[in-house]
Design brief:
about 750 residues, about 35% helix, about 20% strand, globular, single chain, 10-stranded mixed beta sheet
Length: about 750
């Protein structure tokens, strides 16, 4: 029996399960406080990544209790689903938080790392507060989470904070139900928490700094003098330098082997960012969010060569107290991941020491390390976002967002409940699903190095174990040379699981369908640099018709013979010569689209064809030496950038296209001042018009009016916003990626969606 009558009132016992971001954000103490305020009796515990509440009271009062939890939940918390189950009557004397349980097979949810909250930030600068200038101040609603956890549930003993036993002061707050740090797993102070440590890169005649203030002073002095330091942040080590010192920036580039790609810059405040960048209300809210992503902001003119390097500057605010305290002394600062380009971000002390020794082998590039002894369990670089169409859009989903799952509606008859999607080769993230919940990993970068591949393997196992996911299917890209495909084949073979392959551009479109819960026919416009096609050619300028897990290639950019296949991605000149040699005026095949770039070819052909290198490339094209057919929109952008004399080599991914967009932006502000820039803008508009023509054609034939815009090319703000405007004006319903990147970082989500909807 599960009820009892009390003075004509029915008293029942109910178990309430809450899914969402409800661990590590002060949810259990919050539940206990609400229960005490409302006079409820029962208990709350973390169980397997969920919060489970048991209460005994009337149905009306239990409903009011649940409504209050929803309405007053802590800021970082998210309630995705609530389930109430009647139990046998149970009597409680009070309401208490009980020890966490191991849990069951339900989908677990762990919060991402949370930036310092306003309350802790105020305390950090309050001279009367015991945690004044404490570099690791945190509370129930802020601090590291995913990067320090060993296992669920999220309790101190299950994190790297187990190495720092609480002092009496912290324990009193931790156990006080009314305190803001009640059950704050990262609670610490100067007496019991992590401490800042300074290690010079070479023998230093100056006396060693003692205490946090002296250590921060020493680090700031080095940075002001043009030095570079390594700094241990939440998800890994950063390299830090003054963006206004050209020699410091040169040393940083030499240490990272990073030729010209702009660095992200950390600013002390929003007001300081506004001195250098334009910031709208959406961007301001994103900058101050608990995820603290890097945001691509259009910059104003500056004295810094580094800030002026691109139209956009990756800008972000500090996420934890030690960063604030350093920026109080010198700001802004370049904060970039500590690693050589294309290598994993460094998270451990022995790794950073080895890196500094290598960097300093010929001359001193890095002056020392500011670190602490709190272990980082999982390396996670800063996330990168931008605002397009007045919406935040993910460019790199990592710290602050991973591993918060995305809800994907797969219906009740999906092919498998638990799926591993291995993602793509470039800008990789993998994904694991458990029912409708899709867990995206942090960003790993390119899978071309053994180091990244090993870390990838470790993290697949780690995430599966952490969330208690046993894959029933593996899904991967079709490219025969991708590491992620060979890994998927080995994993499936070893575990005896079915393996499903999803074409690259289909996965791009499916990622938009997953995010936006799209049903029915969808016109997929997938533009990027490369992708293995079902015909063995290189795709990248695709118009697809997608429905459920199915895809039909409707039309595409006309195939052009390219030298070197995927290796042509860096050399814009190869792409330009390929288009010059393609004789694009001849009639195209069925479903092939011929881009109108005749003005651009006329503008740049003579200058390009006169070079000795061009003659070699032309000869190779004539003989068919090492050529592959490509419909890549990314390579077309590279070709146009080269033909216009804007940029001819991608020494970092997308540089030619980025500089072409910058030229088009110049023409928007200064029409008629530069012929190349005017042609760049004309090209952008011609691509948008081509998209609308093809979408109209597809609508006429299929009746579809939902359009998914995706692929790395749609990171181009001018192209995206112009295309959205045209589509909406013509009655289409356009959709795009928001929570995952339109670049290859979102591929794994699309692979999951396609696998979930097999045979639908």
């Amino acid at each position: 029996m599960n009820i009892i009558m009390n003075s004509m009132t029915t008293i029942i016992t109910t178990k309430i399960k809450l899914w969402g971001i409800v661990q590590g954000v002060g949810f259990r103490p919050f539940v206990a406080k609400v229960a005490h305020r409302l006079g409820m009796k029962g208990q709350v515990l973390n169980i397997g990544g969920l919060v489970e509440i048991t209460v005994t009271d009337t149905r009306e009062r239990i409903d009011a209790f649940i409504d209050t939890l929803i309405a007053e939940k802590p800021g970082p918390a998210e309630i995705v689903h609530i389930k109430c189950t009647p139990l046998e009557y149970r009597s409680f004397d009070d309401f208490e938080i009980i020890r966490s349980g191991e849990g069951d097979d339900e989908a677990a949810m762990i919060p991402a790392d949370l930036a310092i909250c306003p309350h802790c930030l105020r305390e950090l600068y309050d001279r009367d507060n015991p945690r004044y200038h404490h570099p690791f101040i945190s509370c129930m609603i802020c601090g590291p989470r995913y990067t320090i956890i060993d296992r669920i549930p999220y309790d101190r003993d299950n994190t790297s904070m187990i190495d720092f036993p609480m002092c009496d002061f912290c324990r009193d707050e931790y156990t006080d139900l009314q305190d803001r740090r009640h059950h704050a797993q990262t609670i610490s102070c100067r007496d019991c928490g992590p401490q800042l440590i300074w290690r010079p890169a070479k023998a230093d005649s100056a006396p060693p700094p003692e205490g946090d203030e002296q250590i921060l002073d020493r680090a700031a002095e080095i940075l002001k003098d043009g030095g570079v330091i390594a700094f241990k942040s939440v998800g890994g080590f950063n390299l830090v330098a003054n963006p206004f010192d050209p020699e410091a920036v040169r040393k940083l580039r030499e240490a990272k082997h990073r030729e010209s790609k702009p660095f992200a810059v950390m600013f002390r405040s929003i007001d300081e960012i506004r001195k250098f960048c334009f910031v709208n209300p959406v961007e301001e809210k994103l900058l101050e969010s608990s995820a603290r992503p890097i945001i691509l902001l259009e910059h104003r003119e500056s004295d810094s060569e580094e800030i002026n390097k691109s139209r956009f500057i990756g800008s972000f605010l500090p996420s934890f107290a030690a960063q604030y305290l350093l920026l109080d002394r010198i700001s802004p600062l370049i904060f970039t991941s500590a690693n050589a380009s294309n290598m994993p971000m460094i998270k451990d002390e022995d790794e950073i020491e080895a890196f500094i020794d290598r960097a300093n082998s010929s001359r001193q590039l890095i002056d020392g390390t500011l670190f602490n002894e709190r272990k980082i369990r999982l390396r996670a670089d800063d996330s990168v976002t931008r605002v397009i169409d007045d919406q935040p859009q993910m460019i790199r989903r990592s710290k602050g967002y991973a591993p918060v799952p995305l809800y994907v509606n797969a219906g009740n008859d999906s092919a498998a409940r638990c799926i591993l999607a291995t993602g793509s080769q470039l800008k990789n993230s993998f994904a694991l699903s458990k029912g409708p919940f899709s867990y995206m990993s942090q960003f790993f970068g390119d899978m071309d190095t053994i180091e990244n591949q090993n870390i990838y393997r470790e993290n697949v196992d780690r995430m599966a174990e952490l969330f208690r996911i046993e894959p029933e299917m593996v899904v991967c890209d079709m490219h025969p040379l991708y590491f992620t495909r060979s890994f998927a084949e080995e994993y499936a073979d070893r575990a005896g699981l079915p393996l499903h392959m999803v074409q690259h551009h289909h996965a791009h479109v499916a990622s938009v369908m997953a995010e936006n819960n799209l049903e029915g026919k969808v016109i997929g416009v997938s533009f990027d640099g490369t992708g293995y096609g079902t015909d063995g050619c290189i795709w990248g300028g695709e118009f697809l018709l997608c429905e459920g897990g199915n895809m039909e290639r409707f039309s595409h950019l006309r195939y052009v013979d390219m030298i070197g296949g995927d290796s042509s991605m860096k050399d814009g000149l190869r792409s330009a010569i390929s288009y010059l040699a393609a004789d694009i005026d001849k009639s195209a095949g069925d479903r092939e689209i011929v881009p109108d770039i005749s003005n651009i070819l006329e503008f740049g052909s003579r200058r390009i064809l006169d070079s000795p290198k061009s003659r070699i490339i032309l000869k190779a094209l004539e003989t068919g030496t090492n050529t592959v057919k490509s419909s890549s929109m990314g390579r077309l952008f590279d070709a146009v950038s080269c033909l216009l004399g804007i940029c001819d080599y991608n020494d970092y991914e997308g540089r030619c296209a980025i500089m072409l967009e910058d030229a088009a932006a110049f023409a928007l502000k200064h029409p008629g001042e530069n012929r190349a820039c005017d042609l760049a803008l004309e090209f952008h508009r011609s691509i948008s018009n081509m998209i609308i023509r093809q979408c109209r054609h597809m609508r006429e034939e299929t009746g579809a009016d939902q359009v998914a815009l995706t692929g790395g090319t749609f990171q181009n703000k001018i192209l995206m916003e112009e295309t959205l405007s045209l589509l909406r004006a013509d009655g289409f319903e356009p959709y795009y990626n928001i929570s995952v990147s339109p670049n290859d970082g979102g591929i794994a989500l699309g692979q999951l969606f396609a696998a979930m909807h097999l045979n639908k």
